[in-house]
Amino acid sequence: MADQLSAALSYLKQNQSRFLDDLKDFVSIPSISTDPNAKADMLRAAEWVADQLSRLGCQNVQILPTAGHPVVYGEILAAGAGKPTILVYGHYDVQPAEPLELWNSPPFEPTQRGENLYARGASDMKGQVVITLKAVEALMRNGGLPVNVKFMIEGEEEIGSPNLERFIADHKDLLASDFALNPDTGMIGAQVPTITYGLRGMAYFELRVSGPEQDLHSGLYGGAVHNPAQALCELIAGMHDADGRVTLPGFYDSVRPLSAEERAEMALLPMDDAFYLEQTGVPALYGEAGYTSNERVGARPTLEINGLLSGFTGEGVKTVLPARAMAKISTRLVPDQNPEQVHQQLRQYLETHAPPTVRWELIKLAGGSPSVTDIHMPGVKALYRALKDTWGVRPLYRREGGSVPVTAQMCQLLGIDSVLTGFGLPDDNLHAPNEKLHLPTFYRGIEALTRFFSLMGEG
Amino acid sequence: MADQLSAALSYLKQNQSRFLDDLKDFVSIPSISTDPNAKADMLRAAEWVADQLSRLGCQNVQILPTAGHPVVYGEILAAGAGKPTILVYGHYDVQPAEPLELWNSPPFEPTQRGENLYARGASDMKGQVVITLKAVEALMRNGGLPVNVKFMIEGEEEIGSPNLERFIADHKDLLASDFALNPDTGMIGAQVPTITYGLRGMAYFELRVSGPEQDLHSGLYGGAVHNPAQALCELIAGMHDADGRVTLPGFYDSVRPLSAEERAEMALLPMDDAFYLEQTGVPALYGEAGYTSNERVGARPTLEINGLLSGFTGEGVKTVLPARAMAKISTRLVPDQNPEQVHQQLRQYLETHAPPTVRWELIKLAGGSPSVTDIHMPGVKALYRALKDTWGVRPLYRREGGSVPVTAQMCQLLGIDSVLTGFGLPDDNLHAPNEKLHLPTFYRGIEALTRFFSLMGEG
Question: Are residues B9 and B128 in the same domain?
């Protein structure tokens, strides 16, 4: 095994420029999933992935249809039943590139400047897909892959994966695996290899408060009726207490407490208060009493106001007493909270606190479950060692505040946990102009995943 | 005098159809002050008024320029220094007529249906201007006007009278009078003659709360920073206490308490809780504890949220943690509150209550002083008797919740109070399609003001 790995690592060194050429090919395709005019390019990108899988030596390579853009599948199962099967997740679609005038080079003409390659999708996540493909290639070309791998590369991640849950449910046998590898998260810094082991879920609502049947003159009626904008503000203000805790009844009941080990790990992360102050520009931080900012963002549930709208919002003055007011309200959830339970908790809060002077309506717009991976599972341990051997420093564990619905879907439908990693950096300009990939980190990423697959084959 | 009055009242009866023809002439002119293409029509309307004044026998009739639309002036001072001088206020401009498709007859083609004349401006306030002109005419044609009158008919009321304060300040001597008669308020019902003796002032603000330098991902930062929309809601929620009282420091300090007489008069108004519930459609009323709805609207100061805007307000879901949030906040003021004092009180509230986790900015957008007229002054007493003699029932006194800045401006610049009345009805569709004037009330209005001028001449 050690011989195979050193041969594979030599192979990586010799093939760097070809890997980069392949990446440039891939990011040249404007596979913008939200663009209705990009269907041909979406198919080109899917075919590019399928072609790479075939060249690797994948079997059963297919471009499988969904109600939207297709999913590319391929498998290498030669290691046999005695070895673990890893489901590799990725996506071949990218965000739109607008505003185009802010790009220093055209978004779909990959351009190298210094140590970076600039292109839409270079980091999110075509670069990560190529890293995975090349790690598998390195082992395939040097004795064969010592584990079983299935690839599931979708084309709708940037539009919220509307058809993926159905796809997974319809292909449970095809996708059956021991765990998933999802390289769609990132690193804290180029010298800080990172393992993400938790993601928050979400429940998103629209709250509508109404009073008068139509807008009133604030002079003629102001004082005699409860202003719906005021009533909405009063309801929202009551959703947090003085300690920054969410007051929905039972909100924290099913929150899994942070273990001492997790808190110790999170304390190692180089994101202290100064980091959050600098990143956000706020005059002072805020949050749930008793927790650090990292814990608040990654491991504690929150309630945010995403939007407010009522009455007159233009320039100048209009003395309207608005008939209605609206808020977009979302909660980020952690294990073992459940979006529908939180929906009922918010409803109960409103039933208790909404005054009889207004009417209200609550609409649930979206929901997704939180997830957390056991950091003691073999896949995480192998990834830890692979990252450590590559970077020469121990990786850090973190829980991310965002939501990656596919993780919870795989857990619910396939019964598998996800090992989350990735080699994007915080300054990669994801979803923004001048997206880039740090090439030294790209090559280290290939090395790390080569080591990971090799280690998994030993286990 | 009794002979002159009965002759004048006979004259009114004989000339009703001509009065109606004159009103139809006047409302046929589309004098929409906000329409930049209506300048010629605005001038036509001003000339129409000037022509009427000249035919009445006014002296010194002038169309006086302002930075915007001109003011029409005319005077009848033959009664001499021993008699009071009354400054009659009016406006010859009207609101736009849109949406045109909702009118049952063209807005500038006056159309009689049943007892009503339909046209833009019929009630607000060309009809009221004609009422005043014809009352003066009836006395002029039957022995002469027994009081002195000055007319000031402006052309910018519907756009907020932006040049009137300057005009008054520049023409103090010309406008010097004992009190003003402003027939731009209305009646509670066709059988309920009404004297308005108080108007609320206003102070209007925009409050901007900001936190992060730009919109953040609510997953990646939610929980670690104070959401500006939440902070704004918390600040707004604190502006009222559980008794519906405004919590700005010192807000009520200079509020003149309601006298027992005023409260008794207000209790006579036919606007009870059922009226406000029906008019507004709210599920339950709200307001400052210890006061009736009429008192809350007319005689107590209030604070209203006129608009809210923050973050994402479109269809569906966007998980943004907004960088800023904005509210339009207005206060309605009563004597002896002062808009600038209230501005400072709101600023002080924010300095005390805004948390260190956000930044805020307060912009004062508009302000106007409240006003109240002594109901024992001779002009009010004469109007009371004139209305009573015309309708056969005693008039009701009310304070209106809205603001008429000219009233406070005349008080401050000319040192005169305003006697406020008018003969529009609540269902006249002011500022709306199918504006109309109730013709029996129109003729009674002319009779009432004829009696009023006659009584003032006796005093």
Answer: yes
DSSP code per residue over A301-364: -EEEEEEEEEE--SSS---EE-SEEEEEEEEEE-TT--HHHHHHHHHHHHHHHS-TTSEEEEEE
Cβ atoms of A222 and A394 within 8 Å: the answer is no
ipTM of the prediction: 0.87
Residue A93: φ, ψ to 5°: -95, 160
Region B217-224: mean pLDDT is: 88
Task: Tally Cβ neighbours within 10 Å of residue A107.
Answer: 25
Q: How many whole angstroms separate alpha carbon A438 and alpha carbon A433?
A: 16
A213–B281 CB contact, under 8 Å: yes
> Do you find a cis peptide bond into A99, omega within 30 degrees of 0?
yes
Question: How many domains does chain A fold into?
Answer: 2
Question: Token match 């019902």: residue?
Answer: B189
Shortest distance, CA A104 to any CA of chain B (angstroms): 22
pLDDT tens digits, one per residue of A400-426: 888 888 998 999 999 999 999 999 998
Number of residues in chain B: 459
Query: Closest Cα of chain A to B435: distance in Å?
Result: 17
Nearest-CA distance A279 → chain B (Å): 9
Tokens of B87: 């400054």
| Domain harbouring B309, CATH code | 3.30.70.360
Domain that holds residue B227: 201-249+301-366
pTM of the model: 0.88
> Please, are residues B240 and B350 in contact by the beta-carbon 8 Å criterion?
no
With CA atoms as reference, the chain B residue closest to A366 would be B317
Of A300, A313, A355, the CB nearest to B223: A300
CB atoms within 10 A of CB A34: 13
